Structures are given as structure tokens and as C-alpha cells.
Amino acid sequence: MTALLLLWLVGLLGPEPESLLVGERESEKAPHGLGNVYAPDVLLEDGLYRMWYGGQGRDGHDRIHYAESKDGRAWERRGVAIDVEGENHVNDPSVVKVDGTYYLYYTRAVGGVVDEIALATSPDGLRWEKRGVVLGPGKPGEWDSLLVGRPSVLHEGGQFRIWYDGRKDLPPGPLAQGVPTSRDSHRAVGLATSKDGLNWTKHAGNPVFEEDAGGVDVERSGDGYLMVYESGEGTRAANSRDGIAWRAPRLAVPRSGGKLDAAGHVTPALLAGSGWLYFGAAPASTWNQNTIARVKLPPGPGGDRDR
Predict the structure, then answer these.
(1) How far apart are CA 20 and CA 292, in angstroms?
(2) Which H or E run includes 150?
């Protein structure tokens, strides 16, 4: 028995990811030319898989792209969906359809790494109208006073709910120029609600989840919610009855042990009701050479059928 097989059997390694999209166009190749695509969000409508995802161009800027598939495996690129001239970061889409209108929430940063959450709407998921920033950082000293981003949105009972990550400072380093820093810097997850998708109220008890969690996706799981989030170990997960109090954080899908996701999983997302987990597979610790991949989320503890 090989060492990799033994590690897989004892749960230290996950299943081999299925590679779906590699950055190959100018808007996806990244400055190093090796490609960088990640942050997929997938909807299944009338038998058609629809994916909005982030891609980093040769110019270093991120843009939101769109692709379609008939089987969830072979994807046809349809080009750039959302780009904002002069902005450094336009990425991390979360799409929800409400009363015939698509709402796409995304991270944007004019320059550097100071993120905020913006909205675009569409009648068909193809032609988008930018609606501007809808959720910004908190007040000075609050847990999310520096930046907020990587939204995950659901619409239930006539209400929008958005989970997002935020932080008040960054670890010292090259990215932390001109912003607060701390050696104890960490991310956390907040919750906000809205009636119209435009005007949001942050939950008074924020943050609702710590664990240095970021790049989250929240979906319904039985009578509660399942949150997945990125890590260098793979995709981590937690459960909640109400979307506010989260329990049992754990490693849901470990790295496979192969080259594709050797450095972990970036911005994972669940295809609701399918058990499929989509994510940016990171072969390098810099997390800037990602490929979009998927695996089947296992049943039981950690999976989407544990309720």
C-alpha cells in the first residue's frame, strides 16, 4: 500500500480534484503567464450549469468571467462578465436570482487590498448593471474596519442575507503598505441582512464566526446551514441552525496530496443541493496560480448530508 493511499484511507488526504478551468486567456493568465482562475459560483438552471468566476489578467487586474456547461465538467467560456476600468480587484462573485432578477455581489478594490462589497444586477445573468458599493468596512476600531469582501448571499423568506469576511488590520509584509498592521492579524466572518438587496444592516453580534475564516460560502443544509471556507489544508466547514451561531469547525475536504491542490483550496463554493464543491485549487503557496476544480463533498460529518 502506498503512503498516499494510506493517508487517504485515514482521512488525512481528500479525493483527487477534477480540474475544470485553467487560466488561458489574456484576462486569466496573470502576470506570470501561468494562469490564475478561482472564486467560482455555480448555479444550475433548467439543466444548464452557469459559472461566474474570477480571473487575474496579464495586467495584474482581476475580472469576473462567465462560463456555461451542460454536464458540469466541460465548460464553454463566454468572456468577461464584469470589469471596472482602473480598479485593481473585481472578483469573488456570489449570485442569487430573485423574482427574475440576478443579483451579483462581488469584492472590489480601487487599488491595493482595501476591499468593499459591490452589487450588479441583470435580467439574464449576462448583461449587468453596476449598482455600486453596498457594504463597506466598519467604523475605526471595529473588527472589519479595514476591509470587507468575499460575499456569500442567500435570499429566503423575503430577506437577503450576506456572509462576508473582514479584518481590521493585515500582517506585516509587502501587501500592508499604508494600512494598520498586527502580528495577531486575522480574519473573521460577519452577517448582514437586507430587504431590497441594496441597503444592508450588519448583525449586532458580529463577527458571527472567527477561526481566521475567509473566502466563505454558505448554503442551506437540511434545516440549517453549511459554511465552507478556504484554507491551506483544504476546504474547511462549519454548521449552524440559524446562520448566526456556528459549531463544529473542521476540515471537510483535505488536500488530495497531488500537485493540483498542493497548497490548499481557495474560495470554495457549494452547488446547492448537488453535493459538488467547486474551488480554486492552489498548486503554489503564493495562491496566485489557481485552477478551478471540483470534488464531491463527502456525506456525514463535514459533508452536505449530515442533517
Answers:
(1) 6
(2) strand 147-156
Looking at residue 137, what DSSP letter applies? -
Task: Write phi, then psi, for 29 (nearest 5 degrees).
Answer: -80, -20
Higher-confidence residue of 122 and 177: namely 122
- The half-sphere exposure of 7 on its side-chain side, counting CA atoms within 13 A, is 13
DSSP 81-127: EE--TT-SEEEEEEEEEETTEEEEEEEEESSTT--EEEEEEESSSSS
Q: How many Cβ atoms are within 10 Å of 217's Cβ, its own excluded?
A: 29
Residue 10 confidence (pLDDT): 42
Q: Identify the bridge partners of residue 63 per DSSP, sorted by sequence position.
A: 55
Tell me: the pLDDT tens digits for 32-71?
999 999 999 999 999 999 999 999 999 999 999 999 999 9
Query: What's the CA gap between 131 and 46, in Å, rounded?
Result: 27
Gap between the Cα atoms of 14 and 257, Å rounded: 8
Report the phi/psi class of residue 88: left, alpha or beta, with left for phi > 0 and alpha for psi in -120 to 50: alpha
Residue (of 113, 199, 115, 194) closest to 156 by Cα position: 194
DSSP labels, 209-224: B-TT--S-EEEEETTE
Residue appearing with cell numbers 493511499? 5
Q: Domains, the chain, ranges and CATH?
A: 17-296 (2.115.10.20)
Amino acid identity for residue 260 in this structure: L
Q: What is the spatial distance between Cα 302 and Cα 159, in angstroms, rounded to a whole number?
A: 27
**pTM of the predicted model, to two decimals?**
0.93
- Under 8 Å between Cβ of 41 and 49: no
